[in-house]
Protein: DNA-directed RNA polymerase subunit beta
Amino acid sequence: MFKKTIKFLGLRLSIIIIFVIVLLVLAAVLGLMVGYGFLGGGNPSNVFNHNLWKEVMDKLSPAK
Structure:
């Protein structure tokens, strides 16, 4: 009986953790799209553009 309870709680906890991680990723993606697209005046789908992130990282990295 005790092993079944532990297994059930472990499964439930795993599902909750995965659900929270998915929600965090979704919130981050939507936040980036809203911030760049609507507040920044750009195209929201450009958030997924590799060149945009390369440009951002170049601006943030110290000059050589």
In short: Helices lie at 2-39, 50-60. The mean pLDDT is 88. Residues 2-60 form one domain. The chain is about 75% helix and 0% strand.
